[in-house]
Structure formats: structure tokens, C-alpha cells
Amino acid sequence: SCIGRLRIRDRNDIIDLEGLGSGGWTISPMLDNIEILESDAEFILVLEKDAAMIRLAEARFWRKYPCIILTAKGAADIATRMFLRRINKELKLPVFTLVDSDPYGHYIHSVYLRGSKRLSYESPFLATPNIKLLGVLTRDLEKYKIPNDCRIPMNQTDIKRTKELLNEGFVKKNKAWETDLKLALKLKIKAEIQALSAFGFEFLTDQYIPEKLSTGDWI
Question: In what helix (H) or strand (E) does residue 44 lie, and over which residues does it extend?
Fold first, then answer.
């Protein structure tokens, strides 16, 4: 789903995504019927989780920080990736992901970045090569003093998946990404986006995201 500073035409209906409830606009797989009308957004934020979307929607995050927010509610489905690629191409805005600090979150970021291995033949039409990983980074856990009880020990599958990611060419090309995954492997910890709410519900919207965006703290 999608919400924020964007107006579209869906066949004959003009939809202002800023005025929708916390559920946002359900991204249509029939993108040929969608026309991008206007946007004064300054960036696009892609969220792994619906819970984070609801939090940002409740805070009307896009009013203070002009943006378009998308989520595929977990796995990066084709409709969401196609729509992201389309608005990215038409609006030419910076794009960021906010995912859990775990191998699956990093994998989801990689699917938006370059497409999935399973659909490699379609990847050029679905990828957003300029997307940046805003968080949650392993280094953020220390930087923002995330409490230990919000940090989760990695299991064997997590360790295996992290090692697999470190073997990927697209990770090796990005030294900051490689460093963050190596740190996760060294500490053997992971954390969910929700860990940030240890400091209160406003921490994500009022401090974490704005601070990282203003300081360029992404991968």
C-alpha cells in the first residue's frame, strides 16, 4: 500500500494519497491504468512492515517530512516493486528502505535494489538501483543505545543467511553494507524496527528517521 504526498488517477478516479486513512491506497497490479498526476515529495520511503506504516500514518509523517511511503507488508511483491520503479522513474526522488535489522530485512532491501533471483529475467523491469538502506542498521543498535532486551540473538539460519549475503557480488561492491553485515555476524544479534519504540512511539518518526536522513546515515 502507499500513502503520502502523491496524487494519481486510477481510470476515472483522482486519488489524493495524503487524505487517505492509515491503510493508504492499495497498490493496483493494473499499473497501465494509473497516471501519476503530481507530487511535492522530497523522498520515497519503503517500509518492510505494516506496523511501521501504521505508526508513520498515525503521525502524518509526510506532512512534516514531504514524502511518499510504501509497504509491501513483508515480502517485496511484484506490484509494489513495479509501482516503486515507476514513481522513482517519473518523480526522480531519492528512495530509502526501512527494514528489520536481520538477514531477511537485508534480503528484502536487495530485492527492491536488484530484483529477486527467482524472477531474474524480469529484474530489470522491477529493480530500483538507486535505493538506499536507511535502517535498521546493525551499527544503529549501539549508536542509538537500543536496550539489550530488544536485541534478539541470531539463530543458525540467520548466521547462514548473513554469510550467504556476504558472498553476494552486490554486497561485496558496497563496503558499508558488507561492514554492517560483518558486524551483525560478529555480534550475532538482530533487531526489529519495533525495537526503536523502546524509547516511545515518537522516537521512530521524530528522531530516528529524520536524524538519519539529515546526516546521510544510510548504506
Answer: strand 43-47
Q: Give the Cα separation of 46 and 135 in Å (integer).
A: 11
DSSP state of 26: P
Give 139-162 pLDDT, tens digit per residue.
998 898 888 888 999 999 999 999
> Residues of 188-200 as b/e, b for ≥16 C-beta within 10 angstroms?
ebbbbbebbbebe
User: Are the C-beta atoms of residues 114 and 129 closer than 8 Å to each other?
Assistant: yes
Segments of the chain scoring below 50 in pLDDT: none
Q: Hey, where are the domains in the chain?
A: 2-141
SS (H, E, C) 99-115: CCECHHHHHHHHHHHHC
E strands along 141-185, which residues?
152-153
**Range 2-141: architecture per CATH:** 3-Layer(aba) Sandwich (3.40)
pTM of the model: 0.90
